[in-house]
Every structure is written in C-alpha cells, then in structure tokens.
Amino acid sequence: MKIHFSRALFPLIVAVFLLSACGQPSLQTDQAHPSVPAPSAVIPTFTLPISNTPTPHTACKRIAFMMFNWVEKSNPDIYSICPDGSDMIQLTDDPSEDVDPAWSPDGRRIAFASSRSGNRQIYVMDADGEALTQITFDFENDRPIWLPSGEQIAFRTTAGIGLRRWRIIDLSTNEITKFSEPSPDHFYQTPAWSPDGQRIAYMSLVEKAERNNGSSQIHIRNIDGTNDVALTNDAWTNIKPIWSPDGSKIAFLSAREGNDNIFALYVMDMDGENVRRLTEPSYTERASFTWSPDGQQIAIGDIAWGRIHILDLDSGEERELVVLQEGDTVLAPSWQP
Predict the structure, then answer these.
(1) Which of 38, 122, 197, 281 has the fewest CB atoms inside 10 Å of its own CB, making it the most exposed?
(2) What predicted TM-score, i.e. pTM, was given to this entire model?
C-alpha cells in the first residue's frame, strides 16, 4: 500500500525513544544448534519479478527511511521522500515492523527487513512499494545490504545459538553462502563493499573483542580476503565505514573526541589519509548514514534524535530532512543511487 503525503508544517519534536525493535539488528550464525534436529521441510524459494518501475511521483533521487510514532505506539513502516523534503510516500503499511530499507544499485528496488511472517526476514519491493517478495525464510534475518552488482544481498542472521554472522543470498539462484564467522560482537565486519565490488571496508573484530571499552579500527581488504589494511589507529572506537559513491572516500563514526559512547561523523580518503570531522560528537553507536549519489552530502539519523539530517560536506551546513508530527521518529536513511 502506498500513501502520498503533501508537505505540512508541524512542531518539531525531538524523539528520544529507545525502541528495542529499532536497535541494530543482530549478526549471527548459519549453524543449527546441536540440540535442534535439522528441519525436514523444504526451504521456500523465490523469484524476483522483473522491475520496470520508474521512480514514483516526483523525479528526484529519493531517500528511503523508516518511521514510527511513539505517541500513537505505531510500528515502523518504510517511506521515501525527495531530498528537499517534498513528496513523502508511505511504501509499506503493515502491523508488523518494517525496518532497514536499502536501495538496489540501479535504484529500482528497496530491500528491507520485516517481522510480518514472524521472525524478521528480508523482503524486496519495487521503488513504489509494489511487487513485494520475501527472499529469506529461516531463523532471524535483517540489515540487508546490496552488493554492487545488484545480484546479491548481504544480511545479518541468527541460527539459534545467540551469535551473529553475515550471509549473502544470490537473487537468481536463491543460494545462501556464509560471509563471516559467528561473533557476539554487535558491529563485527559490518561490511561495506566498494562501488567497484573489489574491496570491503569493515570494523575489526579482534581489536573490538580485546578492547573492553578500548579501541576498534576501520580496515579494508580485497574481496578475496587478501591485503587487509587498518585505516585508523587510535585509542577509541571507530565503526560503520561506508564508501563514497566514487570509491575515493570512506565515512565512519568515531568516539575519538574522548567519550567512548558519543560519536562524531568523520570522512577520510580510502587510504586512511586526510581524516576530517564532519559533525560535533552527538551520535550514538546506533546512528546510520548514507551518501548522496554525487558524494556532496550525507544523510544521517539516530534513535537518540529521532530525526534525519542532511549534511553538506563543503559548507558544513545541516538541515532536517522531514518536518515531523508530535511523536514521529525517523531513522535508517538510504539514498537512491
């Protein structure tokens, strides 16, 4: 279901509502718990319909996001909006939780996680909210990330033993492969593929596990695991690297200002040089952000603020993406390529 909204001015309410359902989804394992017998049922398969859907409504590079209202106690749904705050569209309308939208590389589809079938699973829909297709069916799965080819989606998963891992699903064959080993670490190897698909940026596990509120560093490596290089090297927490659209820079969150629980947004060259702070330290580790297609802006949202800001990298100016009604909380921006 799609609902079109005209712009209206409402009082701005800072929504500081730590809804557990909107926290970072977990990273888990493929391996079944040894006490649980393997299921005899055949895992369902899927076929994605061919999408010829143009961008809905206004021709703009839209920002998808999730929104809920804590006053009305509504569950999160997926929306999209033009970067100037116009033409907001509701793309999902379900009593379950629809979270973590992610645009496909060609800008025609959105992957997201939903609890509409019980446990959270990964779904794909067209840019206008039509042609909804469930693509995972086991355990609990969330945080979809499209690989640059548009033919695979990475996602975080659990298989019943309380640990986290990443898997990758091939959209043409339905084949699921393991990407990372099981880990209790919340952010371990949150992968960010370079635009050319040849390298991966991630947060290192070993340093995080050893630090006990000490340091964790941003690494990049080749897709085959070779040439692993640390881009940051300090005494603080560095997490959530994301490549710029041209592959020349990496944005990330860091607590290097001295408080391990308060993060600022930084950007650096892909070799770790020319590190520059973009925001004041004001974000939690739950913040998420996305580059504009031209690499000139970054949209960032955080549960502690309950709103999404767009930051201009040249001027440093920030503006709010969407004017909210009382109780509205907007999170998890994803900018259409």
Answers:
(1) 38
(2) 0.82
